[in-house]
Amino acid sequence: MPQATLYRMVLPDHECPFGRRAKDMLDDAGFEVEEHILGSREEVEAFKEEHGVSTTPLVWVDGKRIGGSDDLGKFLVAHA
Q1: If we measure between CA atoms, which residue out of 68, 51, 50 comes closest to residue 59?
Q2: From residue 19, how far is each of 40, 49, 55, 65, 67 by CA, in Å?
Q3: Taking the alpha carbons of 45, 46, 49, 50 in that order, is the dihedral positive or negative?
Q4: In terms of residue numbers, what domain contains 7?
Q5: How far apart are CA 39 and CA 2, in angstroms?
Q6: How far apart are alpha carbons 58 and 51 in whole angstroms?
Q7: Are 62 and 2 in contact (CB under 8 A)?
Q8: In 3-state terms, what secondary structure has residue 23?
Q9: Report field, pTM of the whole predicted structure over 0.90
Q10: Hey, is 49 helix, strand or coil?
Q11: Cβ contacts of residue 1 below 8 Å, gap of 6+?
Q12: At what angle do helices 69-78 and 17-28 cross, to 10 degrees?
C-alpha cells in the first residue's frame, strides 16, 4: 500500500476544505495516510514558514514532496 503524509489545518472553528479534499483523494486512491493536524493559527503559520509555502495542505507520497491539493490531484491522475 502506498504511503502518504498529509499536513492540514483543522482549527477549532474552521477545517480547511482543501485539506479535507486532499485527505479524501488519498483515501479514495488507497493510500495509507499519516495525518498531521495543524490545530492552531500559530502552528499553521510556523509550518508554512518552515516549508516555504503560503497555504496548506502539504502532501508527501512515499517521501517525495507533492504539494497542495491541486498538485495532489495532478499527481494522482498522472500515476493512475
Answers
A1: 68
A2: 15, 18, 10, 15, 11
A3: negative
A4: 3-78
A5: 26
A6: 9
A7: yes
A8: helix
A9: yes
A10: helix
A11: 30, 31, 32
A12: 20
Which pLDDT score, from 0 to 100, does residue 25 have?
Answer: 97
> Alpha-carbon distance 54 to 77, whole Å?
24
For 29, the grid coordinates are 486512491
β-strand pairing of 58-61 with 3-11: antiparallel
Q: Which amino acid is at 58?
A: L
Whether 60 has a pLDDT exceeding 90, the answer reads: yes
CATH number of the domain residue 73 falls in: 3.40.30.10
Give, for 29, the enclosing helix (H) or strand (E): none
User: How many domains does one find in the chain?
Assistant: 1
Beta strand residue intervals within 1-80, DSSP E: 3-11, 14-15, 32-38, 58-61, 64-67
The pLDDT of residue 55: 93
pLDDT > 90? residue 1: no
